[in-house]
Amino acid sequence: MTSRRTLLRATALGAPAAVLLAKASAAGAALSTGDHVAALVIGSGYGGAVTALRLTQAGIATAVVEMGMAWNTAGSNGKIFCDMLEPDQRSYWLRTTTDQPLGYFLGINVNKSITRYTGVLDSEKFAGIRVYQGRGVGGGSLVNGGMAVVPRRDYFAEILPSVDVASMYDTYFPRANAGLGVNAIDTAWFETASCYRYARVSRDQARASGYSTTFLNNVYDFGYMKQELAGTVTRSALASEVIYGNNYGKRSLDKTYLAAAAATGRLSITAQHVVTAVAPNSAGGYTVTMNQIDTAGATVTTKTVRADRVFFAAGSIGTSKLLVAMRAQGALPNLPSAVGQGWGNNGNVMVARAQHLWNTTGALEAGMPAMGIDNWADPAGPVFAEIAPFPAGTELWISLYLAITKNPNRAQFSYNSSTGAVELSWQTAQNQPAVNAAKRVFDTINKAQVTVYRSDLFGVNKVWGDDFTYHPLGGCILNQATDNYGRLPGYPGLYVMDGSLIPGSTGVNPFVTITALAERNIEKIISTDLT
Ligand code: FAE
């Protein structure tokens, strides 16, 4: 309840989130070389935002460093973010062409040229997988589908056996849901809303094929969405806004956790700074090196600051890359060998089905998914498939799914000394168990409904979207690479707080798990290490 009250207090102050965050940046300004801070948080996604709020509430001045932009200024169209139908430079992180997850239509590449810019969605390419991540103050919360799903209790116990399950479900998951502003859809409205026809069609066919379905909570304000459909407010989720940001309606972290942290007056946010090194400082604490970048990604200046404590919250990829590089380069040579191990894609695979002409999915599709097919209990191939929108603004007769499966394959990060890059060993073929599990479900549905797969959306003649993920997890696993609360062994004052703690899979969309685990860990760290 504390978090709920604090967040309410933050907004009750009368200042909108953007003003609070602007104050946070102004109060602490950007970090400068020579600064000495009590706590420095690398990254402003879920792990970082929870850490920032709880540290500042505990009276500790906290500096958050974020490589992406603050996303508080309107662009050429009068809005902060662009939509999915007309992506411009704001869409992608330092690319000259878009790299849409569904990059093809009728087998034709539909990506377009854009100006290289520090846009909000990164499609980071490794040898065998593209990893989509949010870039900006708020991390993945700026670009994600908002689905806020608590994992199954037995599966959580299976993936993180060192964590007390009762305290997670009694305390930390409820705390995370409150802090994130999670809300449930009005199920009666769902049944009639034109913008969820696509979900109802998929649901009815799944049920008729023997599968059960479930509603999904979200951090998008469903009350706002109702008004969008009624035509009384500006559209966002109903205006093809999702993966390049939502201009309205979404409770992203800059409006929840980070706004509440800013309201304490103890938060500073340094945006457009990429942390490149962390090493022990001879005077105590750690030296953190960072490059300030411009909107084309060029380094403007390099800064070093000293921090008594450093919280790695750069995401599964960002944290793993930094730590693996620091170990290899000798800055943090004693990091355990488990750092860089155990990375997985949460069993992600996407697929689409073609509907019969008489089974329309609707021209207006809500960008925020609200329903999933739950076949996780099937021991032959657990699948939890979100019914995803295809918000093209026109009838397409397409049913799209993001399947989360129990893929046992894992990958490692390693440092390539000749290029200086950190590589990820994942190969596309490692996703075959995910494809097999999803195929069982969707083959069954197709057979029962006499429908077929679309093979024109993920490439030419390619049924499965098996070469990208939205859910990078692991690389610095709890109780293996860190202790049971995210402390890095051998380096007092260094902590890991994000999705890298989770061993490659949560069985559902991951941000509630990441948030709840961060709530659990920071509570322990504050009570034992900081007071
Ligand atoms: P994250 O949110 O990625 O935050 C890390 C931050 O650190 C980012 O802001 C980075 O820019 C920053 N950073 C990285 N390296 C550095 C550095 N060296 N220096 C400074 N800053 C740095 O990490 N999950 C759900 O639960 N439900 C959904 O509906 C959902 N939909 C998604 C849709 C899309 C398109 C994507 C990409 C993801 C989706 N996810 C969803 C996944 C979710 O957003 C992701 O698991 C979390 O954002 C991960 O949280 P972390 O705190 O680990």
UniProtKB/TrEMBL annotation:
Note the PROSITE patterns from the entry: GMC_OXRED_1 (PS00623), TAT (PS51318)
Domain Glucose-methanol-choline oxidoreductase N-terminal: residue ranges: 134-157
* Keywords, ordered alphabetically: FAD, Flavoprotein, Oxidoreductase, Signal
Gene3D superfamilies attached to this UniProt entry = Cholesterol Oxidase, domain 2, FAD/NAD(P)-binding domain
As one GO molecular function, the record gives:
oxidoreductase activity, acting on CH-OH group of donors
What family does this belong to?
Belongs to the GMC oxidoreductase family.
Q: What is this protein called?
A: Cholesterol oxidase
Organism equals Actinoplanes regularis
